[in-house]
Amino acid sequence: MLPTFRNLNQLPNLMDDFFGKDLMSNFFENKTKFSIPSVNVNENKNEFSIEVAAPGLSKDDFKIDIENNVLTISSEKEEQYEENEKKVIRREFSYNCFKRSFTLPETVNAEQISATHKDGILNIVLPKREEAKEKPARQIAIS
């Protein structure tokens, strides 16, 4: 049986603690973050919804595209920080990006898709076509 690595992201910290950090390691620290936000996909009788958890991003940071029945949610955000101390200038760049794609079922009315953003959650509503919505059960009279 193979071991499981639940805290694999802690491995670099353990290595640094064991061997000690180099004085220049902070100078060359990587400021690029590639993280894929968590997504919930829900369905009810009238629609599907996609919830994207992306704290720290505003609605203007997102791009939502539909092409060939594929919905793509992406974001690219670059931040720059500058500090001036004793004739030494330090610049730090931070670049965050992600891209998620979902093949839409044929039951989705692509012309009616809408999106909202609140409290770090992007919510995309994908309404179903009228003919795809569940119809209530009915009895048929026998003549």
What CATH calls the topology of the domain at 30-129 is Immunoglobulin-like
Extract low-pLDDT stretches. Answer: 1-11, 17-32
Supply Rg. Answer: 24 Å
Strand percentage lies at over 45%
Average predicted confidence as pLDDT: 77
DSSP helix fraction: under 10%
Instruction: Please identify the structural class as seen in this structure.
Output: mainly beta
Strand-helix topology:
Elements: H1 11-19, E1 32-34, E2 39-43, E3 47-53, E4 62-67, E5 70-85, E6 88-103, E7 114-118, E8 121-127
Characterization of this structure:
The protein is mainly β and 143 residues long. The protein has a domain at 30-129: Immunoglobulin-like, CATH 2.60.40. 6% of the residues lie in helices and 45% in strands. It has 1 helix and 8 strands, in the order αββββββββ. Strands 1-6-5-4 form a 4-stranded mixed beta sheet, with no helix packed on it. Strands 2-3-8-7 form a 4-stranded antiparallel beta sheet, with no helix packed on it. Strand 5 and strand 6 (88-103) form a beta hairpin. The termini are far apart. Mean pLDDT is 77; it is low at 1-11 and 17-32.
In short:
The protein has 143 residues and is mainly β. Helix content is 6%, strand content 45%. The chain has a four-stranded mixed beta sheet with strand order 1-6-5-4, with no helix packed on it.
Question: Which characteristics define this entry?
Answer:
four-stranded antiparallel beta sheet, 143 residues, mainly beta, 8 strands, four-stranded mixed beta sheet, Immunoglobulin-like, disordered N terminus, 6% helix
